[in-house]
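User: Okay, second chain of the day. Same drill as before: sequence in, structure tokens out.
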Amino acid sequence: MKNDNNDGKAAVGRRGFLRGVGIGALGVGAMAAAPLATPAMADSETNDEKRKSRYRVTDDVKAYYRVNRYPG
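Assistant: Same drill. Structure tokens below.
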């Protein structure tokens, strides 16, 4: 719907307003995300370190199994 009372003011419709707000939000989001980008780092583990076992039976793990009645 256009505004019939043209007093030299530009009428902004609902869609135009929402489009402008959306474009503004995208611009702000892009500016905010740019400083957070960091260069990728290479993996520092050797092949032996990658293959080693990481599971450790600690007291916490033993208590978890005991409390949940898993066979020991």
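The first helix runs from residue 14 to 33.

User: Thanks, on to the next one.
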